[in-house]
Design a protein that fits this description.
Elements: H1 12-31, H2 37-69, H3 78-107, H4 109-124, H5 134-159, H6 165-181, H7 183-187, H8 193-202, H9 204-217, H10 227-250
Helix pairs in contact: 1-9, 1-10, 2-3, 2-4, 3-5, 3-6, 4-10, 5-6, 6-9, 9-10
């Protein structure tokens, strides 16, 4: 006989908002625990240099990109032209920052992997470890960083497609951010690259909400300079929370007590 049905998930917007909430939660968790700061120093220093360089490069590219890919004056309604121009500018600058963040992640992936492990240890009392060993986890962390770095040109190219391009660019960038920032926590659970892709498909709304919030954070002055460790912290907390949620959903409902007949 089949057991009781699993409880339904909340609506997609609620799930996406829950994922996005883990970005500020990552900042808060990191700021409240000075013991984690030494693990974040190197990623922050490199992010300051490389994200800033990416933003400057994006600013220099803005006139060239707008001239070639924005709609010609009076070819579309003024409000459409202004909206597209703003989106093109945001995507160009954001792509530069995205590339800088990708370089910082690739260069500091071992340090960020340790940070993720420390976050889990403080949140759970212990850090999970896969049966495949530390070397395998380090290799997966490096592979994830390179995947994120390779995604950076795609973010820029998609943003150049008229009308829908900026939205596609944000979506692709958000997916890459979520994939990378949860990479260490999922590697500790023994997940291969294919297993991580399945995990993100299962939790698509939460993952994309988290990633899009991270993309917005790239454009926030000063916050984007500490974004790498904060997002790794938030991504680790996201994995832990969804793991708890899945365990709760799969837990069998308690059987109703049968009243004994009165004598």
């Amino acid at each position: 006989m089949a057991g009781p049905p699993l409880p339904l998930r909340p609506s997609l917007p609620v799930r996406a908002a829950a994922g996005a909430w883990h970005v500020p939660a990552g900042f808060g968790f990191l700021l409240r625990r000075p013991g984690l700061w030494p693990f974040a120093v190197l990623p922050v220093l490199l992010a300051v240099v490389l994200v800033s360089a990416g933003v400057v490069a994006g600013l220099f590219l803005v006139p060239w990109v707008v001239e070639r890919f924005a709609p010609a004056p009076l070819s579309v309604p003024v409000w459409v032209e202004m909206s597209i121009n703003v989106l093109v500018v945001v995507v160009t600058i954001g792509s530069g920052a995205f590339l800088g963040l990708g370089l910082a992640l690739a260069l500091t992936s071992p340090a960020l992997d340790v940070l993720s492990s420390q976050v889990e240890a403080r949140a759970r009392g212990h850090a999970g470890a896969s049966s495949r060993g530390t070397g395998w986890e380090a290799l997966q962390a490096l592979r994830g960083s390179l995947y994120f770095l390779v995604a950076a040109p795609g973010v820029f190219v998609l943003g150049l497609i008229p009308i829908v391009g900026p939205f596609l660019s944000m979506g692709w960038g958000g997916w890459a951010v979520a994939f990378q920032m949860t990479d260490s926590a999922l590697s500790r659970r023994g997940m291969s690259f294919a297993g991580k892709r399945r995990w993100h498909r299962t939790w698509r709304a939460e993952s994309l909400g988290f990633g899009l919030a991270g993309m917005v954070g790239l454009l926030v002055p000063f916050a984007n300079l500490v974004l790498a460790p904060a997002l790794v912290t938030g991504g680790t907390l996201l994995v832990l929370d969804l793991e708890d949620l899945e365990a709760e959903r799969l837990q069998p409902a308690p059987e109703a007590e049968v009243a004994s007949p009165q004598p």
